[in-house]
Amino acid sequence: MLENFIRQPEKQPDLLALVKKLCHRVSIVFGGGFVEITFDGKIVLVTGGSRGLGRALVEAFLENGASVVTCARHADELETAVGALQERFGDRITGWVADIREADAMEQLVHVAQEHFGGLDILVNNAAFSHSGTGLSLTDEQWEDEWQMKSMAVVRGARAAVPALRTRGGGSIITISAVFDKQPDARFYASSVVRAGVLGLTKLLARELAPDHIRVNAIGAGLIHTPSWEKRYDPTTSSLKRYLEETARAYDVAVQRLAEPEEVANAVLFLASDAASYITGTQLDVDGGLARYL
Ligand SMILES: NC(=O)c1ccc[n+]([C@@H]2O[C@H](COP(=O)([O-])OP(=O)(O)OC[C@H]3O[C@@H](n4cnc5c(N)ncnc54)[C@H](OP(=O)(O)O)[C@@H]3O)[C@@H](O)[C@H]2O)c1
What we know:
By secondary structure, the chain is of the alpha/beta class. Helix content is 46%, strand content 17%.
């Protein structure tokens, strides 16, 4: 078959398409068996999917067969992102305007998944932004914001999602956290503090939900090349490439670069898949060697 493709140059685009399709299916060897990472028929809620890591997560789940609900606060950007994905994946993706700081947002999003796709299998708590400032300079409102986005949305997300996951016989909850939860960093002051609590929540929820076959894990992200970094860079003082290199140096990242969103999304796919069936209550660090804790 391969020879035919090679002898007939006009067929080479078909070969490329075939290779691309096969490469989207990841297989992991397990003591004599293979587990294919596929999400065919699975229903996933990823918060904050209009750009950055969330956008990559949505695409990764879609590429691997899932149906996805996502959200963001800004309708235009969400519509553009979801529209582009609908062109490729049809009605397996839907986007809703929601602010996860609001008390009923997570419940509404779970409801959307149920109404639109008939249930929920995987919740990925991704949406958030960070306030800059220190213990003394951050205002009460900023602390409250961080608390609502990074902690309460996870609590409310679990509360809303668990009945739906139970109906499907189990599932997975993954929170995108940061290595700064274990290695506090003043440059992500409030995030370091709030996310440390969320790591405790991950461990406790994992125990609480294990009897329901629901696994609860977190990703300890290092630095990811997303628009959140591009926003901080001043084009009048350096090139983006140089800014990102300097950032990696400033945080002493072992691999001397930021992660691409797809590199973090791959780890999320693994945690959400059956290949991680014995992993719960864990934080998987995807940080290019940034963190120094043992
Ligand atoms: N980038 C990094 O280096 C890094 C490192 C460690 C951890 N993380 C974590 O990774 C996650 C994604 O970060 P990112 O860099 O991809 O951020 P990003 O590029 O700023 O994207 C954030 C996404 O979340 C949405 N969002 C933000 N606040 C929201 C809210 N209150 N309600 C609903 N949607 C909201 C945004 O849309 P709207 O603005 O329209 O709401 C957008 O879709 C965050 O939890 C972040 O803390 C990032």
